[in-house]
Design goal:
Layout (H helix, E strand, L loop, with lengths): L14 H8 L6 E4 L6 H9 L3 E6 L2 H6 L1 H6 L4 E5 L5 H5 L9 E3 L6 H5 L24 H7 L2 H12 L4 H15 L24 H8 L1 H10 L1 H19 L16
Parallel strand pairs: 1-2, 1-4, 2-3
Helix pairs in contact: 1-2, 8-9, 8-11
Amino acid sequence: MSERPTPVLHVPVLLNEVVAALQPRDGGRYVDGTFGAGGYTTAMLDRADCRVIAIDRDPDAISAGRALAERYAPRLRLIEGRFGDMAELLAPHGVRRLDGIVLDLGVSSMQLGDPGRGFSFAADGPLDMRMSGRGDTAADLINGADLRTLSAILRQYGEEPAAGRMVMVVIVVMVVAGAVVMAVARVHPAADPLAQHRYSDSDDEQRGDQVQPRVEVFRNDELGQAERDEAKREDADRVRDGHDPAEGEGVPRLAA
């Protein structure tokens, strides 16, 4: 039986810069919308006598963060959910105003370091890519989507000009093998049927490796969440300033 990999600690690259820009203050209330390993949350709580509400859709992150919540109780509250649903998640707790929000989009080192999650560039594992562990997997997406949809995903999220050709190769491999072989996402690098179709130029070759995170972004709706969250915050600002968000040309409405 193979052992589960040792968890990898995620260290935010721009931790100091983000906290310096946020300037947490005593008595302030902040949201860490992508809690992960709690790097930003810990830094804010250590910087000031403030309160932090930490949100993460990954149940593993929430579970691992309970020790941190106990250490900083009652200043830290953990909520499992998507940052795109921030307004709905905060409403039951009576939170109507915040002093700052931190969002660190993308996968964490812990997710990349666990082959079983399907995010790895180098290790073999199931084609999962679900941050929440619920819903269809990336394998379900690839098996169920048509050529146009798959091509659109690679073109829109990966800026891949040869998206159609790459998807055709994947479909041929699926038909021949009778199962999903995620060549584009590099879940099993040793079985990469796209290798002969890669560009010889090193910069172009890297574009193939960029497809995996684009499939992940689409699967987990990260860009959509960010857009909806921004629209909600803009509406909240207008309401606070005495304006009706339903009035005025071009004013975004709250997402359903």
